[in-house]
Write a structure and sequence with these properties.
Pfam families: PASTA
Domain PASTA: 43-107, 182-249
Keywords: Membrane, Transmembrane, Transmembrane helix
Helix content: 25-40%
Protein name: PASTA domain-containing protein
Strand order of the largest sheet: 7-11-8-9
Order of helices and strands: HHEHEEEEEHEEEEEEHEEEE
Largest sheet: 4 strands, mixed
InterPro entries: PASTA_dom (IPR005543)
Strand content: 25-35%
Shape: rod-shaped
Length: 250
C-alpha cells in the first residue's frame, strides 16, 4: 500500500495522468465535431410547398433546394394529370440537405380494373357496385324479361362483356335490363303505310296476326294501312294478339 502511495506522488504518475486527460479531451472533441459534421448540425431547411404544382415545377424547386425526390402516381377522374397532390414531409417541415421528399402525382393513364359481377342484381344495387369500382352507367337498354330492372348483361363499346374483363377505370358502360314484360310479350309494331301482305309478314315474325280488316278498299293488293288497333303507343302486347287494320287505296 505504501508503494502505491509513493507512486501516486511521483512525476511519472502525474505526467501519465495529464496525458490520459488530454487524450480523453481530444477524443471527445473529435467525436463531438465529427457527429456535427456527419449529421449536418445547423443545416436544417424548410420543405417548400409543392402541392398544386406540376411535377416539372416541383422538380425545379427541389433541385435548387438540394433535396432529393421520389415520385408515386395515382389516377383520379376529372383531375388534371401531372399535378402534385401529396408530399411527405409536409411543407414547412425542417429537414437536412439531401433529404428525400416523396411526391404523389396524378397520372394521365387510367389503370385497368376487372368488371365486377352485377348480373341478376337489381339496377340500384348494380349502380352502387359499379360506382364503387369507378365505372359509369352511360345508358340502359331494356329487353323482354319477366324480371324488371334486373341486370341481364353489360355492354362496353357496343360489345357484350363478362365479369372479370379488364377495362379502364372511369369507363362508361351500358347496362341491359329486363322490362318485366316477359318472353310472352312483344312490342307493338308500326304498320302504317304498309300493304296488307307486308303487314301480315311483319306480324307473323312477331307471333301476331291480323284481326278485323276495314276501310274503303277497291284493290286489296295495293291498299295500305292507314290505322291499326292496338297502335304502337300501346308498347307491349301478348303473343298471339290480333291487330285490327284499316286499309285504304287513296
Amino acid at each position: 500500500m505504501s508503494k502505491l502511495l509513493l507512486y501516486l506522488r511521483t512525476d511519472v504518475f502525474r505526467k501519465n495522468l495529464i496525458y490520459a486527460l488530454i487524450t480523453l479531451i481530444v477524443l471527445f472533441l473529435v467525436v463531438y465535431f465529427g457527429l456535427k459534421i456527419y449529421t449536418k448540425h445547423g443545416d436544417a431547411q424548410e420543405v417548400p410547398v409543392l402541392k398544386g404544382l406540376t411535377i416539372s415545377e416541383a422538380k425545379q424547386i427541389l433541385d435548387k433546394a438540394g433535396l432529393e425526390y421520389k415520385i408515386d402516381s395515382v389516377y383520379q377522374m376529372d383531375a388534371k394529370p401531372g399535378l402534385v397532390i401529396e408530399q411527405d414531409p409536409e411543407a414547412s417541415a425542417l429537414v437536412k440537405g439531401g433529404r428525400t421528399i416523396y411526391l404523389t402525382i396524378i397520372t394521365q393513364v387510367a389503370p385497368e380494373i376487372a368488371l365486377p359481377d352485377v348480373i341478376e342484381k337489381n339496377l340500384i344495387e348494380a349502380s352502387a357496385i359499379l360506382k364503387n369500382h369507378n365505372l359509369k352507367i352511360k345508358d340502359t337498354i331494356y329487353i323482354n324479361d319477366i324480371a324488371r330492372d334486373v341486370v341481364l348483361g353489360i355492354q362496353f363499346g357496343g360489345q357484350k362483356i363478362n365479369a372479370g374483363r379488364m377495362i379502364s377505370k372511369g369507363s362508361s358502360i351500358t347496362v341491359v335490363l329486363g322490362n318485366g314484360k316477359g318472353a310472352n310479350e312483344v312490342e307493338v309494331p308500326m304498320l302504317l303505310n304498309l300493304t296488307l301482305s307486308e303487314a301480315k309478314f311483319a306480324l307473323q315474325g312477331l307471333g301476331l296476326h291480323i284481326g278485323a280488316i276495314s276501310g274503303a278498299i277497291t284493290d286489296s293488293t295495293t291498299a295500305r294501312v292507314i290505322a291499326q288497333s292496338p297502335d304502337s303507343t300501346s308498347r307491349f302486347i301478348s303473343i298471339g294478339t290480333p291487330i285490327n287494320l284499316t286499309l285504304s287505296n287513296d
